[in-house]
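Worked Example 4.2. Read the sequence first, then its structure tokens.
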Amino acid sequence: MIMNAGSAAGRIVPNLFVYRFGVYNVIIPCVFIAAILVICTLAVNTAIGTLIFAVLYGFFSGAYASMLPPMVSSLAKNDGEMGARLGVCFTFTGLGGLVGTPIAGALLSPSFVWWRPILLPSLCVLISALCFTATRFLRVRKKGTQWL
């Protein structure tokens, strides 16, 4: 519930900056911070720490969820491509969500070794942030402006 409240704020507040700075320039820091927060769960061992993590991660993951469709749509050359690009994006996102939980459960093992299932999503989020950054630099080179 707390993470969902943070996500609600994260879906609104960062979007206010998109018009000024561009969707790539707002989503990339949010995803990098989300990756760092997932890694930080290794150090969380109190109720207050869990609460702070839930609010912050909810905020930054909500920002990702709300800015992903405009970011993917900005790659389309015309309006007819938007649906296809979003479909491909959400197909792979859905597949990751489908197989990620059982993989994390297998990594947890019966002895409850928590660092392994924490490492998997943190690396996935970090790799996605690096991919977004690479896409941004390629778009900057093609478009000729820093405000994407």
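Now turn to a second chain, presented in exactly the same format:
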Amino acid sequence: MDTKRNTPIYNMLMNYSGTHPLPFHMPGHVMGRGLADLFKEIGSLDITEIPGSDCLHDPDGVIRMAQELAARAFGARTTHFSVNGSTVGIHAMIRAAVKPGGKILINRDAHRAAFNAIALLKAEPVFLMPEYDPTTRLTLGFREADLRSALSEHPDIEAILLTRPNYYGAAFHIRSMIGIARSVGIPFLVDEAHGAHFAFSDLLPEPALRLGADACVQSLHKTLPAMTQTALVHEGPSSLLEPGRLFRCLSMLQTTSPSYVLMASMDIARDIMEREGAQLYEALYRRIQAFERELEDMGGVRRVVPEAPGLENDFSRIVLSFGPCGLTGFQAERILRESSGIVAEMADEDHVVLIATPFHSDADFENLLAGIREAVRYGEGPQDDRLSVVKAPEGLPERAMNPGDAIDRPAEAVELARAVGRISASAVTPYPPGIPLIMPGEVFSAELVRYLTEIQGSGGRVHGIMEGRVLVIRQAKEN
């Protein structure tokens, strides 16, 4: 064991495993004995609540110590571990701030987890529409004037939840927006799932907690060296939330059998980034600068970096357009994967999105450049740098009822083409990025059906469409 690590949970697991105990406790694989191959070693650290291991739902030992270390590292008043990802953290934040049936101001391009939480609460979403850059076909930030207008029109809004950064790495300034929320006494919540690394380098956008957010959620596994399903739920230093309420809501929602392997992973990731984060991201910044120079000389592809007043970009989120060589994002992603073994984070009609971390090497970037050259060769040759003709519908779908009411109604599956004019009984969501195009209670338009058909025809994956069918609210039979 590396005794230099300030990792209470990991150290406890290593010490316990090193005593070679004979466990007659959960889990049933008995410290890896019953597991196969590589899982045996991992299983030796997979324990349950036993003397000395603490309890996530009532921490007073190593888990409490690890969470306090995380709060200090990320600049929070309190930090709670989520072993159910950012999803449960988003649910907990909303539940802590909004009463059943209450109103919440939320960005329309929020993650489906937020809309699911709103539906379960039977709350009413008031949407804030993001600004849109028609040149890059990317959403940007939100206008302060729109936020003020929404609060004026809906004085009974109980909380604000905004996503920052978005999936493409764009992080808009929120300090003044937080000030507006504070002036009317409502909490400002941030889905910062893609920004856990912001706290560890001045080269990255400023994190939400430093900007005054009352609470935020961060997925460690998205950008930091932590295992999938790990997230942190933070309360800001001057949070308006009732003390202890966020923890109570989180405890109600997440598993009572938390994985100690996942919690140790969070412990280790925080320790690594605290000790080495600034240097690691400085090295990554230099790698990406060199990559970008090579990309500029290549032709047929370009890096997309949205620009707008009050907008910062995460340099480690690499968004590429293969439009200059005639490839859609879906086509380029498939070529990268099948011809070069390079697996992107996601693609849409116009872009390929890559997440770079300090744990990518110089050789990795050389291989990426080689793969991009190969993809460009598959293109149709030099093209006008145009974007796809597949365009999303403008405006929001008509809302026929509250999303919480819609999910309680009897539903039936109909072919997508026959859904025009019907009320959706579930979210329909291209994934990634996990942003619903239509929510429960909203009406399918012909334009939306056309767009969903085009996404699938272009190779995109859409959750909520099963074997060509969508769920709609069952219509009452006529006498």
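Notes for the reader: The longest strand covers residues 157-163. The radius of gyration is 23 Å.
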